[in-house]
Design a protein that fits this description.
Number of domains: 1
Radius of gyration: 23 Å
Shape: globular
Low-confidence stretches: 197-209, 246-273
CATH class: Alpha Beta
CATH topology: Rossmann fold
CATH superfamily: P-loop containing nucleotide triphosphate hydrolases
Distance between the termini: 75 Å
Largest sheet: 9 strands, mixed
Mean pLDDT: 79
Strand content: 25-35%
Number of helices: 8
Helix content: 25-40%
CATH architecture: 3-Layer(aba) Sandwich
Amino acid sequence: MTETDLLSRKGMLVKELAQEIRTLQTAHRPQGIHVSSGCEPMDRCLPSGGYAAGSLLELTCKHKPRTSGWGGLSLALKIAKPWLDDGKYLVIVDSHRRLCAPSLVAMKIPLERLIVIRTENAADWVWGLDQALRSPAVGALISPVGELDDRSARRLQLAVEQGGGLGIFLRDQLSAKRNPSWAEVQWQVQSVSTRTNCNPLSQANASSVLMERWFDLELLRAPGFQSTRRVRLGIDAQGEWKHCDERKSPKSAEHLAAQLALATPRRPNVAAG
């Protein structure tokens, strides 16, 4: 057996072992159930075309999230919305009391199926998340996450597996590296642009202004993850997904147009006479 064959065999054994470990880790959650984010480019980055029932998801950014005022919450709300079918509830942890009801309405979140949790200390926070994630009535949960010890991280993973919903954690990159959770999928989020749009069709207020936001997402962790995957996504003024072709950069297209505009036309060859 050649050295190449040995390396190939070792690689196969490592993959088989990783799959066995993953099977044991997720044995208590619903199997084969994945829910689409509603955004095709995002789903294409995920091995199963959606987020698994009974799993955790992390959205990380450079700065510490405070429930609202961070673009990751908009992304979390869009991902969570499909999980509210069949009358299930959305739980949002808002200990800093910054959640804005009008923004939830703009994102088409049914307020009658919203539960807000406000905790005073870390122990209450872990207990509240544990109880909410274990409930089969909860479709999705969104919470900022700071320091997280190994025991609490494992406790929350077991809780979401029992409940069968989706837990979405909003984290800063430093904390996520220092205190990793058991999140199955992890995205790094960077806000790239915002644009205000007047909505002339608004009957309540003709001058109402809504925000269109764009984000660069980099997939850092996912089942069967092989290589880095990046996608640019937006949320428009009506709270709907927007996306550009991730195979083409808008900047490169603008650069090409500029080059064509500045190109000097070549003079045709004229025979001397």
